[in-house]
Amino acid sequence: MGRMPNVTRADAAQAVRNPLAFIAERWTPSPRTVQRAALTAVVMAVVIVVTGGAVRLTGSGLGCPTWPKCTDQSLTPTGEMDFHSAVEFGNRMLTYVLCAAVGWAIIAARAARPWRRGVTRLGWIQFWVVMGNAVLGGIVVLVGLNPYTVAAHFLLSTALLTVAMMTWQRTREGDGEPRPLVGKAVVQLTWLLVVAAGALVAVGTVVTGAGRHAGDSSDVDRIPLNWTMISQLHADLAWVVVALTVALWFVLKAVDAPAGPRDRARDLFLVLMGQGIVGYVQYFTKTPEALVALHMFGSCLVWIAVVRVLFSLRERPEITVPVPAQSDPALTRA
């Protein structure tokens, strides 16, 4: 191993005052490293949704009956506690893994050369969304898995996934002014698709809140709506999103749009078809836990595909700095 550099007292003071700047002066990650760090945050945003679903589907939502401790006397599950406590506490611990992934993305973005403030800012937004959702998760426990707080918890996780996708996208493009690749009418149709997909996700949380998977074996409040009716509304919205996706693909084909937007619209259609199959099977089989978990994972994939469609409609080139012209030596001598 090489010789470790000496760290002076001034270096230590700088590291305490501004640790990110201290790291940035001593480490420059490659663009690929920054992209991988941002992608890791995306993956962990999906993982935390799936594991949160596992907590609810195994009836472990109150396995740790209080927050921030697991019990009134202990931060961690005690020997007398059961499987549900381990599941709930394990999901809480995964929040630290998510924080580590977001922290890596922030550090990599800050240490990159040139420093892209916008990417770093998006990383910090992820961090604060994670912190806010952790507090909301504690409130969910303290109010006994109130279905409205559970729905808000999932929607905030979707917001985190959105910002993580934005961060990853920004690491893969330049800082130039966005250039649209399609016309205004296509952009408006895409935003209509995004709004419909957002409504689909929101109504999905209501389906969950009115359904039979309350999250715990105790008497947990449910949203007082007819589950069959709200499930039908969810399915109708899904077909609206499918119709808008097909319409967008045909419009992109008709206006001879670049391959990127057409490919992203095709990918969204395929994901929607897979998610639809899972949704209908789970409905007619009385929502078995395994299929509900798969459907929650699919909802993340659907939202990722929707966001990718939106991002594909424009490009951002690298900013090119003009190089001053060399002066003519002969003129200089004159």
Rg is: 24 Å
Annotation, overall tally of beta strands: 2
Widest beta sheet: strand line-up: 1-2
Give helix % range: 55-70%
What is the 3D form? flat
Mean of residue pLDDT values: 89
Order of helices and strands: HHHHHHEHHHHEH
Low-pLDDT stretches are 330-334
Q: What proportion strand?
A: under 5%
Cα separation of the termini: 56 Å
Biggest sheet overview: 2 strands, antiparallel
What structural class results from the helix and strand content? mainly alpha
Specify the number of helices: 11
Provide a descriptive summary of the structure in words:
It is a single chain. The chain has helices at 9-17, 19-24, 31-57, 83-111, 117-142, 147-171, 184-210, 227-254, 259-284, 289-311, 329-333; strands at residues 179-180, 314-315. With 334 residues, the chain is mainly alpha-helical. The chain is flat.
Keywords for this entry:
334 residues; mainly alpha; 69% helix; flat
Give a topology summary:
Layout (H helix, E strand, L loop, with lengths): L8 H9 L1 H6 L6 H27 L25 H29 L5 H26 L4 H25 L7 E2 L3 H27 L16 H28 L4 H26 L4 H23 L2 E2 L13 H5 L1
Antiparallel strand pairs: 1-2
Helix pairs in contact: 3-4, 3-6, 3-10, 4-5, 5-6, 6-7, 6-10, 7-8, 7-10, 8-9, 9-10
